[in-house]
């Protein structure tokens, strides 16, 4: 997958997570907390992957890849919590997003391992 495809895919995921945050109930304290965290992690995901596409080298690139993994995992965690706690009963929407978070995290981890190996 080329960098442009990676950015497009993570940007789409980040936007979808932001849209989920907009439809969470406003009368539920856990939903309010989940909304804040989902916005934070999905925004970070878009920002971090945009930064990765700029072509840094070495330790900066490894650090940004690591943070991109964390952002994917954060989005996946909050989406799973939203689903598991019944905050938003839309499994048909949430489950594919959770799967995409897992797939992107796996892809970033593989890139991270490769980048670390090249630095050694």
Q: What is the name of the CATH superfamily?
A: 23S rRNA-intervening sequence
CATH topology: de novo design (two linked rop proteins)
The radius of gyration over CA amounts to 15 Å
Structural class: mainly alpha
**CATH architecture descriptor:** Up-down Bundle
Share of helix, binned: over 70%
**Termini, distance in Å?**
24 Å
Whole-number mean pLDDT = 91
CATH class: Mainly Alpha
Summed up, the helix count is 4
- Helix and strand run: HHHH
The 3D shape can be described as: elongated
User: Largest beta sheet, briefly?
Assistant: none
Question: How much of the residues is beta strand, in percent?
Answer: under 5%
User: Which stretches of 5+ consecutive residues score pLDDT under 50?
Assistant: none
Counting structural domains, the number is 1
Descriptive account of the structure:
The protein has 120 residues and is an all-alpha fold. It has one domain (3-119): 23S rRNA-intervening sequence (de novo design (two linked rop proteins)), CATH 1.20.1440.60. It is 84% helix and 0% strand. It contains 4 helices and no strands. The radius of gyration is 15 Å and the shape is elongated. The two termini are 24 Å apart. The mean pLDDT is 91.
